[in-house]
């Protein structure tokens, strides 16, 4: 049986194109005209599409399988964006209920990711630590999304900063990638626990 090609440049190019489109949409100001629940549906749609693509497209699945744990976890260092949440709360541009719990939660998860990436030489042999961090990270991002949705539905203007650059990249790019990466980590950890590498 021939191995399914992974086409790494193709998938890297698609992700880069997605990022460029997300930047262009944010810069255009069109996202600020969207009212709930449209931004929330966009986020859900992108997240589900990404997870489904990872499960259904053989080449993409092979490419994802080629990523090591360190690469996947390193992505979550971007969650130091929580510091910016706190800054915007201080300026009165984001509500406390979102910015402070979400900001500190993301900072904790990003710090944990940085610690795992820099201080744990063999992540595969410390599966328990990785799993614990992944559970905390997943709960944090889901809580952030749920809180943002609740506040936006109650008062769309209170969450307007999430529809302007740079934070518009969260619902249109980064959050779907973050959630999908948590799913990928759970899948990888489960498979490795069942079939550990020789």
Chart the SSEs and their pairings.
Blueprint: H1 8-28, H2 38-56, H3 58-65, H4 69-74, H5 82-90, H6 96-119, H7 127-154, H8 169-194
Helix pairs in contact: 2-3, 2-8, 5-6, 6-7, 7-8
Tell me about this structure.
The structure is a single chain. The model has no long low-confidence stretch (mean pLDDT 94). This protein has helices at residues 8-28, 38-56, 58-65, 69-74, 82-90, 96-119, 127-154, 169-194. The chain contains eight helices and no strands. It has one domain (42-192). It is globular. Helix 5 runs antiparallel to helix 6 (96-119) and helix 6 packs antiparallel against helix 7. Helices cover 71% and strands 0% of the residues. It is an all-alpha fold and 198 residues long.
């Amino acid at each position: 049986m021939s191995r399914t090609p992974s086409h790494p440049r193709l998938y890297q190019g698609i992700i880069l194109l997605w990022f460029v489109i997300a930047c262009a949409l944010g810069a255009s100001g069109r996202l600020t005209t969207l009212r709930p629940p449209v931004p929330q549906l966009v986020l859900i749609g992108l997240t589900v599409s990404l997870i489904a693509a990872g499960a259904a497209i053989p080449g993409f699945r092979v490419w994802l399988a080629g990523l090591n744990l360190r690469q996947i976890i390193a992505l979550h260092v971007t969650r130091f964006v929580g510091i910016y949440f706190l800054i915007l709360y201080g300026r009165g541009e984001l509500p406390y209920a979102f910015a402070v719990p979400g900001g500190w939660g993301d900072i904790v998860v990003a710090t944990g990711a940085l610690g795992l990436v820099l201080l744990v030489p063999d992540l595969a042999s410390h599966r328990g630590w990785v799993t614990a961090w992944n559970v905390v990270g997943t709960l944090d991002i889901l809580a952030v999304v749920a809180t943002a949705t609740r506040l936006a539905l109650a008062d769309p203007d209170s969450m307007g900063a999430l529809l302007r650059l740079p934070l518009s990249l969260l619902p249109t790019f980064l959050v779907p990638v973050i959630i999908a990466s948590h799913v990928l980590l759970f899948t990888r950890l489960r498979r490795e626990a069942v079939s550990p590498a020789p």
